[in-house]
Amino acid sequence: MRRIPAVVTTCAATLAFLVPAGLAAAAPASAASPAEQSYTVVPYENVKVRQLPKQDSAYLATLTAGQSYTAYCWTHGQTITDHGYTNDIWIGFADGFSSAVYFKGDQYANLPASAQC
């Protein structure tokens, strides 16, 4: 099981969340290796990135609604209910997680079932 680094070590790593996919010149040092698959996800509203897959975990950044972002995997975490949707799937980014409830697509934000963290 691949684990997503949970600690943001620089401001540059935190700011990586704020740059839409494909626009960043370089990935943060803690990003997945090039051999690992990445996926594009799009939040339908602004969504917070948390250090761990739970709502009370440390806040890292906010993803902007309608922008594309690079995700690496999904995992089970705290169950979230919002806008009539409920699930425990969290999308894994280079340094944190966001609830899949806030992303366009299926329950996994269109990541394949095999992309589990």
Description:
- With 117 residues, this protein is mainly beta.
- It has one domain.
- Helices cover 4% and strands 31% of the residues.
- The chain has one helix and seven strands; from the N terminus they run αβββββββ.
- The strands form three sheets. Strands 5-6-7 form a three-stranded antiparallel beta sheet, with no helix packed on it.
- Strand 6 and strand 7 form a beta hairpin.
- The longest helix is centred in the N-terminal third of the chain and has 5 residues.
- 36% of the residues are buried.
| Secondary-structure element order, N to C | HEEEEEEE
* CA-atom Rg in angstroms: 13 Å
Q: How would you characterize the largest beta sheet?
A: 3 strands, antiparallel
Q: Considering DSSP H and I runs of 4 or more, what fraction of the residues is helical?
A: under 10%
Number of domains: 1
Features:
disordered N terminus, 31% strand, three-stranded antiparallel sheet, globular, 7 strands, 117 residues, mainly beta
Q: How would the blueprint of this fold be written?
A:
Layout: H1 11-15, E1 39-41, E2 47-50, E3 59-63, E4 69-71, E5 73-82, E6 85-92, E7 97-99
Antiparallel strand pairs: 1-4, 2-3, 5-6, 6-7
Task: Give a brief rundown of this model.
The protein is mainly β and 117 residues long. 4% of the residues lie in helices and 31% in strands.
